TrEMBL record:
The keyword Heme does not apply. It comes from Eruca vesicaria subsp. sativa. This is Endoglucanase. Belongs to the glycosyl hydrolase 9 (cellulase E) family. Residues 25-469 form the Glycoside hydrolase family domain. The keyword Cell division does not apply. The active site is at 401, 447, 456. GO terms for biological process: cell wall organization; cellulose catabolic process. One of its GO terms (molecular function) is cellulase activity. InterPro entries: 6-hairpin_glycosidase_sf, 6hp_glycosidase-like_sf, Glyco_hydro_9, Glyco_hydro_9_Asp/Glu_AS, Glyco_hydro_9_His_AS. Keywords: Carbohydrate metabolism, Cell wall biogenesis/degradation, Cellulose degradation, Glycosidase, Hydrolase, Polysaccharide degradation, Signal. Residues 1-21 form the signal peptide.
Length: 478
């Protein structure tokens, strides 16, 4: 007996010592979803687990005599920006559609997170005929204060688009979110699913009929925060692609064709959606073997060729430590969104035994290997040996740029919180699961609250990570 125990002990210590154990993806998945509770606006339910948050924004919409409570704060502030919120919702839904079967007990949490957004987006789309509400809270006033959402005393201005002030970008993204979510709920709540889809169709019609950039009419209320820099054409393709997937209505196929060629992106994020639309439409070329979508498959592959490090057309920089590096501001949003596309395209390739060329032949394993390397970097396999997900592993960001996380649970007024912003002390409230903007181009992370480009979390960083984590949590065996 003794020797058997000894052998088992010896063997397991050898394992931990010599085998480069992967991060605990199951734990990371669970935390990545828990994070959304920390971003909640509106009345919080009794089962709220991030317990240092409380109800907030309870009169949102009242200035327009409508109920716009609920939804998520986008990042470290207290503003509800629907453009990135809708993108977050689309990506959470896509994650769930592709990898829900691999989520185990987390599937229900993913659905709860999606619904927290879609309940709000439905209000925004239906509260006033002819209008789509696209945000609550004056961002310029909000950014002058450092206070918890529970205490905010800044104007909760309501923003909207309409036929005379169009916003095809925000409307098409909102339609994408509701169409994608309608498929998530199809089997579990058909009434809700039908409501989401019919609303998505109306909002998409509005986006198509009244063409324009929402930044033109909303200017300083959305710019420079979530200005639609890339214009609305990418969202029109993306929104129509989601409606096509949800309805199979040839109207959307014809509409997508009428848009003509899209851009040739080398990124994917809340502003720039072509790469996502191409991968989504490739599903039809690969899985349904529908030749009408060959063009989008080629576009998806030329996008991936711009990402792969060894490809002749690569335009993507990698840090010495191996991190994909796209931007000094919130770089990890690009990394999580792109790795989602790599993983998902690899899944479609595997299912159809497809390979393609960028210089050399690319197989699905090459995409998965790159994706895993990025995920592992974020979770701690990097030069600093720290995880960029709060509360994951033994070393993680302690001073994230996030009002609620950085402030004690008491009311301090607009400016009273700045002494907590400026201190070197760690944040008093752990925003478990939050992924920050990430390290700089030299793999350095100063962990400073005022360096928001690196230290601010955002819902869209996490949303795109959820699906990839579910893939690796289940052993990567899709
Ligand atoms: C929308 O914005 C894009 C990008 O800035 C620009 O190219 C386009 O002309 C704008 N469209 C309209 C109708 O203003």
């Amino acid at each position: 007996m003794t020797s058997l125990f000894f052998l088992v002990f010896l063997f397991s210590s050898l394992l931990t010592q010599y085998v480069d154990a992967s991060p605990n993806y199951v734990d990371a998945l669970s935390k990545s979803l828990l994070f959304f509770q920390g971003q909640r606006s509106g009345p919080l339910p009794p089962d709220q687990k991030i317990s240092w948050r409380a109800s907030s924004g309870l009169s949102d919409g009242s200035s327009a005599n409508v109920d716009l409570t609920g939804g998520y704060y986008d990042a470290g502030d207290n503003v509800k920006f629907n453009f990135p919120m809708a993108f977050t919702t689309t990506m959470l839904s896509w994650s769930t559609l592709e990898y829900g079967d691999q989520m185990g007990p987390e599937l229900k949490n993913a659905r709860v997170n999606i619904r927290w957004a879609t309940d709000y987006l439905l209000k925004c789309a239906t509260a006033t005929p002819g209008k789509l509400y696209v945000g609550v809270g004056d961002p310029n006033a909000d950014h002058k204060c450092w206070e918890r959402p529970e205490d905010m005393d800044t104007p909760r201005t309501v923003y909207s688009v309409s036929s005379s002030n169009p916003g095809s970008d925000v409307a098409a993204e909102t339609a994408a979110a509701m169409a994608a979510a309608s498929m998530v709920f199809r089997e579990v709540d058909s009434e809700y699913s039908i409501l989401l889809l019919s609303t998505a169709k109306n909002v998409m019609q509005f986006a198509i009929q009244y063409i324009g950039n929402y930044s033109d009419s909303l200017s300083s209320s959305v710019c420079p925060f979530y200005c639609s820099y890339s214009g609305y054409k990418d969202e029109l393709m993306w929104g129509a692609a989601w409606l096509l997937k949800a309805t199979n209505d040839p109207y959307y196929k014809n509409y997508i064709e009428s848009l003509g060629g899209g851009g040739q992106p080398d990124s994917f994020n809340w502003d720039s959606k072509y790469a996502g639309a191409y991968v989504l439409l490739s599903q039809r070329a690969l899985l349904n073997r529908d030749g009408n979508y060959e063009l989008y498959k080629q576009e998806a592959e030329s996008f991936i060729c711009k990402i792969l490090p060894n490809s002749p057309s690569s335009s993507t920089h990698y840090t010495q430590g191996g991190l994909m590096y796209k931007s000094p501001q919130s770089n990890l949003q690009h990394v999580t969104a792109i790795t989602f596309l790599l993983t998902t395209y690899a899944k479609y390739m595997k299912a159809t035994q497809h390979t393609f060329y960028c210089g050399n032949s690319v197989n699905p394993e090459a995409l998965i290997t790159l994706s895993k390397q990025q995920v592992d970097y974020i979770l701690g396999e990097n030069p600093k040996k720290m995880s960029y997900m709060v509360g994951f592993g033994s070393k993680f960001p302690m001073r994230i740029h996030h009002r609620a996380s950085s402030l004690p649970s008491k009311s301090l007024g607009c400016g009273g919180g700045f002494k907590y912003y400026e201190t070197q002390n760690p944040n008093p409230n752990i925003l478990t699961g939050a992924i920050v903007g990430g390290p700089d181009q030299n793999d350095k992370y100063p962990d400073r609250r005022d360096g928001y480009g690196l230290s601010e979390p955002a819902t869209y960083i996490n949303a795109a990570f959820v699906g990839t984590l579910a893939y690796f949590a289940s052993g990567g065996s899709v």
